[in-house]
Amino acid sequence: MPRVRPSLLFAGANPPLVQLLGPGSEAEVQKMATAALWGLAQNAVKVVGIAGAGAIPPLVQLLRLGAGSSAGLQNNVLMYLAANDDNEVTIAAPGAIPLLVQLLRPGSTADVQVNATGALSRLADNAGNKDTIAAAGAIPLLVRLLQPGSAAGLQTNAAGALWSLAEDADNAVTIAAASAIPPLVQLLGSGLTAVMQEAAAGALFYLAMNNANRVTIAAARCHSGAGVAAGG
User: Fold this and answer.
1) How far apart are the first and last CA of the chain?
2) What is the pTM of this model?
3) What single DSSP character describes residue 82?
4) What is the per-residue pLDDT across 169-223, written as a single tens digit (0 to 9) for each?
5) Model confidence over 88-120: pLDDT tens digits?
6) Of 131, 194, 210, 137, which is closest to residue 160 (Cα–Cα)?
7) Cα(67)–Cα(60) distance, integer angstroms
8) Which residues pair with 150 in a beta bridge?
9) Fewer beta carbons under 10 A from the terminal one: N or C of the chain?
10) How many Å apart are CA 46 and CA 14, to the nearest integer?
11) Rounded Cα gap, residues 111 and 76, in angstroms
12) Please, is 198 exposed, middle or buried when counting C-beta atoms within 10 Å of its C-beta (0-12, 13-18, 19+)?
């Protein structure tokens, strides 16, 4: 991750940085502007100002264009911005959700997928976004990322996204049909992080509201530590 100068973290940097995301800037300039916004977005107070300066549409556009190695930076910024309830709608409006779902497919790096699943997990807190995420084909891709061999952060974010999506009854059926229950049960095992266990338990809580899913959950066996990724 490029270093961000501390002076950029003060008020007033947002509008010029957002301007540099536009099509008139060179790719390297866009990348560094995105990196600076990433540094700003880690401060929850500044998230509103970044969105207010109009950063979200050009970030989504750069993601759409597949702007080379900076794609990870763009969805990283969007992940932080999605922590704000109003931004959940603003990020979805220009079509960010299908783009983020595409990043879950094989071929993306683990870091890119961690950020994409993190963004989708936060976006799925919005009821309308739940339908859009499911319609974009995210559920089977998220279930695949639960499997042993995925990085621990990726498993945690994927379980968190499924937790939010499973609150919708139709999604709960789709999630179970994608064979999510056995790997979610494995993520309850001892030796795993509390955040991972909470996300898996939350997903299973909503899945268990379906009678057929209760039977599958009860039949699943948890092997302690089975969800830990190698080296993760």
Assistant:
1) 20
2) 0.87
3) T
4) 999 999 999 999 999 999 999 899 999 999 999 999 999 999 999 999 999 977 6
5) 999 999 999 999 999 999 999 999 999 999 999
6) 194
7) 11
8) 148
9) N
10) 9
11) 9
12) middle
